[in-house]
Design brief:
Layout (H helix, E strand, L loop, with lengths): L1 E3 L2 E2 L2 E4 L6 E5 L11 H8 L3 E5 L18 H14 L5 E6 L1 H12 L4 E7 L24 H7 L8 H16 L7 H15 L7 H4 L18 E5 L10 H8 L4 E4 L12 H18 L6
Parallel strand pairs: 4-5, 4-6, 6-7, 7-8, 8-9
Antiparallel strand pairs: 1-2, 3-5
Length: about 290
């Protein structure tokens, strides 16, 4: 699916006739394949589930060094995906950077959304979404252990070394409460690398133009039903980031999944699916039949 002259996106559409569409927006540097299959299966019981690879991930075009882009372009890509599939409106679920993109959709394309569920993320203009450090809101940043590790993102490694590095990164992202199964994430990274056909870890999203993200005051006017899902053990956006985002969004629902960090380990798949599906069901139930 072409989104501009320089980029094509890989998209997977689990068509489900008669069900409302749900678009999954992955976090920075990761392919849509990283969404756990059991989670997608649960969501697909109630929705037409769509996932895709961001630019410079998976099987989408990798061309940032020749054709750079802005975070705003990544948000517009989601609308292009919906257009190509002839979907007028969808529920969206955004993880980490995907949650930031979902906020841009809430502000700029509210007419394309039934609802938004964002998890393990921060508010526009705060934390990692405040690259210029202009915000006067004091919230904790990523753990120093992670920041130190991320300095090695661009190092060249062979396949085995790369998988070991990524699995250890996931271990830190998981936090210290829920059990971490290294074999589970080893298998995940095998799938991601096989799908991507490269062992290279993209740094494009960290280098993308982040101008225009300082829009915190605008979030108060969002009227699209929104749920903020908190990972209380998230080392990237630790509490109270989620509570702050829910507060600035006004009418947002805040849902906490006990023990959850920044990794979608198998033990949180069912509670996460339940949180998303109960929210989308309530929204769908409130819509006129023609809208669904």
């Amino acid at each position: 699916m072409r989104v501009d002259p320089n980029y094509q996106l890989w998209v997977e559409d689990r068509d489900n006739p008669g069900k409302t569409p749900l678009l999954l927006i992955m976090g920075a540097s990761y392919s849509g394949i990283a969404w756990p299959e059991p989670l997608i299966d649960l969501l697909a019981g109630q929705h037409r589930v769509i996932r895709y690879d961001h630019r410079d991930t998976g099987r989408s075009t990798w061309a940032f060094d020749a054709h750079s882009y802005a975070m705003r372009d990544l948000a517009r890509d989601t609308v292009t995906v919906l257009d190509a599939l002839r979907i007028d409106r969808a529920h969206v679920v955004g993880l980490s950077m995907g949650g930031v993109l979902a906020q841009l959709l809430l502000l700029d394309y509210p007419h394309r959304l039934h609802s938004a569920s964002v998890l393990c993320t921060c508010a526009l203009g705060v934390g990692l979404a405040d690259p210029d450090g202009r915000s006067d809101v004091e919230l904790p940043g990523p753990e120093p252990q992670l920041l130190a590790r991320w300095r090695d993102l661009a190092e060249e490694r062979d396949r085995d070394e790369e998988i070991v590095w990524r699995v250890e990164n996931w271990r830190i992202l998981n936090g210290a409460v829920l059990p971490f199964d290294a074999e589970e994430f080893h298998a995940l990274e095998e799938r991601v690398i096989d799908h991507s056909r490269t062992v290279r870890y993209t740094t494009a999203h960290a280098r993308a133009d982040q101008s225009g993200l300082d829009r915190t005051p605008e979030l108060a006017r969002v009227r699209v039903p929104t749920q903020v899902i908190e990972g209380p053990e998230d080392p990237v956006h630790p509490p109270p980031h989620s509570a702050h985002l829910a507060a600035v969004l006004g009418g947002a629902r805040l849902t906490t999944i006990p023990g959850m960090g920044h990794a979608l380990v198998s033990s949180i798949v069912e509670p996460l699916a339940k949180a998303i599906l109960s929210f989308t069901a309530a929204v769908d139930g409130a819509m006129p039949a023609a809208a669904t």
